Amino acid sequence: MTASPTTVLADLTSIRTRVDDALASFLRAKAGSGAARRLPEEVVTTLDGFLFGGGKRIRPVLCVLGWLAGGGDPEVPAPVVRAAASLELFHASVLIHDDIIDDSDTRRDRPTVHRVLTDLHRDRRDPERFGAGAAIVLGDLTMVWAAELLHTAQLAHDRLAAALAVLDSMRADVMYGQYLDLLATACPTDDLERALQIVRYKTVSYTCERPLHLGAALADAPPEVRTALTAYARPLGEAFQLRDDLLGVFGDPAHSGKSNLDDLREGKHTALVALALEHASEAEAARLRTLLGDPDLDERAAQDCREILAASARPRVEDMIAARWELAIGALRQPPYPAEVAGALRRIADAAVLRTS
Amino acid sequence: MTASPTTVLADLTSIRTRVDDALASFLRAKAGSGAARRLPEEVVTTLDGFLFGGGKRIRPVLCVLGWLAGGGDPEVPAPVVRAAASLELFHASVLIHDDIIDDSDTRRDRPTVHRVLTDLHRDRRDPERFGAGAAIVLGDLTMVWAAELLHTAQLAHDRLAAALAVLDSMRADVMYGQYLDLLATACPTDDLERALQIVRYKTVSYTCERPLHLGAALADAPPEVRTALTAYARPLGEAFQLRDDLLGVFGDPAHSGKSNLDDLREGKHTALVALALEHASEAEAARLRTLLGDPDLDERAAQDCREILAASARPRVEDMIAARWELAIGALRQPPYPAEVAGALRRIADAAVLRTS
């Protein structure tokens, strides 16, 4: 059986399905060996519930597209799918820890991992403390397993080494991004460059550029493919995060599955907030500074914030998104993109910019 | 210049120095690239302070001894030292998270990482929450950097792949050990097997067996070396942890640098506790159950615990340590240990069993 990129790309769902199959089979094996060694079942079942409770699999899909852009076999061999799947497992570890840090109760309309573990151990002396501690460990184990999923993907040794170099950058970048985010949270300023630095570490590199580079590295693609992928990924990643920031404040929770109060209550430092603090009237900026980061912010005060942000910054952020979308789309018109791969990347860019969740 | 194993082993300090040099040079490079990218300096300085604030470097030393046992070059090439050093960096990540989980204020007589970060950000709205969150991220970054230190050690690709297989087991084992420990903490029982299962995951595999196997894998040693190392490492690891459990209750904080109340207050499930609950009188066992895990346990009640534990279990644990020390030493008398390597491993076994800190 042969496949053209067209077949693979006509339906990105088939890639997602293969990624999910790789994840499920890895976790099944872990459940089996854990049971044989009388290890606690809840470790795998909790992770399984979290992993298959949702998620767009955007990083694995981009990894496979990077593989195809780099001239990889359109059939997408199993080791490449497994490597792509390892990105999703790593991402799960990041989210598990992120939810502890933010003390979030839900993600994707389901209880977060530390809440699940807390509920499972309600009869303990201090179930909240147990839940948080156990989730730190489960997040660590998930990170370790993500690496194992890649190491055991049966990649050629030189491809594995190339993949590890890309992942070392990606993983350090997202951690620095998280750290920058923590530092800036609850300290809103008009520093747009600072907001964009967080985006570059937390989203651009982690969600777009490195997953694409990983695929290209697996295909042993020449350096110009990597450069071309970067030209697409950087503006796309920024557009993606800027859209996310807007949804975090103006989004409809019924569609997005997440609160539109949390970012305001945390006082998340975003481009939206930086631009508002720069362009709003002095009185409005002062009001915004008072409200942002108030953990008890109510819906009425949140509406005040939204009005100030909408008037002073929202159109500017929409312009930034549009400009970045143009750049990303423009990059796809250059070689060396096969037409079908460019088409799929274009659809992803459209979805990232137009999405409502 | 040539070196015999004797030269290297006469002074294990020289191995520790080379490991520390590898760690320092890695962190210096991270500080440099971080500064160039305007990343927060405190990330590297905090990790540096923690890493060089203490630690016996037992895992890197065992890795180098595994290398020598496997017939590796007595000069110990730089890539092997770097791989050994990566174990210490991984260990730092485990300790950083462990201290958050246990809410510990100090380690090695110095403030824990989340306390350092809390103090650094005293002027924030919620410095404790910031410190814990930032330390979760810093622990994650440390784990990522530990992997990078190995990946960039300039190992041959097939040796890197062999090393990763050992590390995948080791890292998952310690996480399962942490999880088992959390589950059992504050729920003391007379289940000795359960206590020893925790030891096998948390200490035997992680502290002794896998570091030795890593060195052997780097040397491409035949399977019988691995088997021989296991015969030594398993009883040694148990003896090491059993001694640790005794020190945690009966140790002199002035010598050990750690509290002799914490294990009792946490209600840590150890072989010592399991044996006491099995062999003490009903009244004493009941008293122990009441006291263990009481976070407000005072020195007088702790003294009660110590007396019950000393009478009903301490000699039994000392017997277990002696039996395991015998087994470990006996294993060293078999081939394929070069005499000098066996001598060094013997000194480590003696130190593990006789130590007071």
Topology of this protein?
2 copies of one chain form a homodimer.
Chain A: H1 5-10, H2 12-36, H3 42-51, H4 58-69, H5 78-101, E1 106-107, E2 110-111, H6 113-120, H7 127-151, H8 157-184, H9 192-218, H10 223-250, H11 253-256, H12 262-266, H13 271-279, H14 282-291, H15 299-312, H16 314-332, H17 339-354
Antiparallel strand pairs in A: 1-2
| Distance between the ends of chain A | 37 Å
Integer-rounded radius of gyration of chain A: 21 Å
Multimer state:
homodimer
Low-pLDDT runs of 5+ residues of chain A are: none
- Portion in beta strands of chain A: under 5%
Largest sheet of chain A: 2 strands, antiparallel
Instruction: Domain count of chain A, please report it.
Output: 2
Number of E-state strands of chain A: 2
Named at the architecture level, the CATH assignment of the largest domain in chain A is: Orthogonal Bundle
Whole-number mean pLDDT of chain A: 93
In CATH terms, what is the fold-level topology of the largest domain in chain A? Farnesyl Diphosphate Synthase
What is the strand arrangement across the widest sheet of chain A? 1-2
- Judged by helices, strands and strand pairing, the structural class of chain A is mainly alpha
Query: CATH H level of the largest domain in chain A: which superfamily?
Result: Farnesyl Diphosphate Synthase
Largest interface: A-B, 52 and 52 residues
Write down the secondary-structure element order of chain A: HHHHHEEHHHHHHHHHHHH
